[in-house]
Design goal:
Elements lengths: L3 E2 L13 E2 L14 H7 L2 H4 L10 E3 L4 E3 L16 E5 L4 H12 L3 E6 L3 H7 L7 E5 L10 H4 L4 E4 L17 H15 L6 E7 L10 H4 L4 H14 L4 E6 L1 E3 L8 H7 L6 E5 L7 E3 H13 L6 E8 L8 H13 L1
Parallel strand pairs: 5-6, 5-8, 6-7, 8-9, 9-10, 10-14, 11-13
Antiparallel strand pairs: 1-2, 3-4, 12-14
Helix pairs in contact: 1-9, 3-10, 6-8
This protein binds NADP nicotinamide-adenine-dinucleotide phosphate.
């Protein structure tokens, strides 16, 4: 399977042509997210009625395809009222999907945003008990007041900027500042009682000196993401790192959330996971968001780093058991 590398999609006018990767051989289990589950989930914020439907589980591998019997044990993710999840980067492509999913699961969340107004545009008016928006720039340690983290049990960090110079670097919001210093500042501000921090990172961070990754790393994005990862690893906090391939599906930041979730009901739901930074390819932001949320509750993902891709096909939806199997299979490789 030849795979194209042209990730960090928000980069306008990439300064190099698309690069073809050599055929790579993986035999990882694949699942997918069922689109109707995603679009109906947001409605549960107000109606609390929609439930993911159980469907035939299709297990793929890159070289082969095996159809399994329906999984009658599929369970709906229970509401976890004991959690209070802080999302950093909740206005971004992955982050907004994370927040939407948390809302639909009745999980309380707190958002750390540079511009709190964006939360109202994206998520509508929510009561503060459910979704409390805090203003803060991760580059400024002074913004990260301990009060923001009071009671927070879990953190999902989806912050990022473009890999190459763009308007999003305005005000020195560069990879060095966001992916390294911002992550460092955020992690340093977290309470030691935290149950888990999930950091969204990138495939290729361990190979930033090698072609073709060195091209993506011309302005240091992979190097700084790796520094952020290392800081998380050494922090002593329980962590999981999710390294995404090139992101697809969004960001849809100009949509209201309901439209957004419907708009992203694409077909790239089958999930590939690996470890050791060998995976190359693309991944839907919907899949990444779901992986982050699922990892919070899977004890053996603590202290682990996973790479994630997705392709067309059926998959795990929001079924915790199927996600456990995916994470377990990735770990066993
Ligand atoms: N694009 C790809 O193909 C690709 C591939 C692999 C990994 N990744 C990584 O995956 C993650 C999610 O990507 P995405 O494209 O979904 O993200 P995105 O749309 O670029 O969103 C980034 C988020 O980070 C926030 N942010 C930026 N600078 C900040 C700062 N100084 N303080 C606080 N928040 C800040 C942004 O908030 P504002 O609204 O204030 O700007 C936004 O919410 C990122 O870490 C990205 O680098 C991306």
């Amino acid at each position: 399977m030849a795979t194209e590398l042209f990730f960090f999609t928000s980069i306008p006018n990439l300064p190099f042509p698309l690069i073809k990767f050599p055929k790579h051989h993986q035999s990882l289990p694949l699942f997918s997210l069922a689109p109707p589950t995603i679009s109906s989930r947001f409605k549960t914020v107000s109606s609390s009625k929609a439930r993911p439907s159980s469907s035939t589980v299709v297990v793929h591998a890159v070289q082969e395809e095996v159809v399994q019997t329906p999984n009658s044990d599929s369970k709906v993710t229970p509401a976890s009222s004991s959690k209070l999840v802080l999302v950093a980067g909740g206005s971004g492509g992955v982050g907004q999907l994370v927040v939407a999913s948390l809302l639909s699961r009745n999980i309380k969340s707190r958002l750390l945003l540079r511009d709190p107004e964006k939360a109202t545009t994206l998520f509508g008016k929510q009561d503060e008990e459910t979704l409390l928006v805090c203003k803060g720039d991760t580059r400024n340690p002074k913004d990260l007041d301990p009060a923001i983290f009071e009671g927070v049990t879990h953190v999902i960090c989806c912050t990022g900027t473009t890999a190459f110079p763009s308007r999003r670097w305005d005000g020195d919001n560069t990879p060095e500042k966001v992916d390294w210093e911002g992550v460092r500042n955020l992690v340093s501000a977290l309470p030691s009682s935290l149950k888990r921090i999930v950091l969204v990172s990138s495939v290729g961070v361990t190979k930033f000196n090698e072609l073709p990754w060195s091209i993506m790393n011309l302005f240091g994005v992979l190097k700084y993401k790796k520094m952020g990862e290392d800081f998380v690893q050494k922090s002593g906090l329980p962590f999981t790192i999710i390294r995404a391939g090139r992101l697809t599906d969004g960001p849809y930041t100009s949509y209201d959330l309901n439209t957004l979730l419907k708009a992203t009901a694409g077909e790239r739901r089958a999930v590939l996971m690996g470890q050791g930074d060998k995976l190359i390819g693309e991944v839907s932001r919907i899949v990444v968001a779901e992986a982050c949320i699922q990892a919070l509750d899977i004890e053996f993902t603590e202290g682990e780093i996973y790479e994630i891709n997705s392709v067309e096909g059926e998959g795990p939806g929001s079924d915790p058991q199927k996600w456990r199997e995916l994470f377990k299979a990735a770990k066993a490789k």
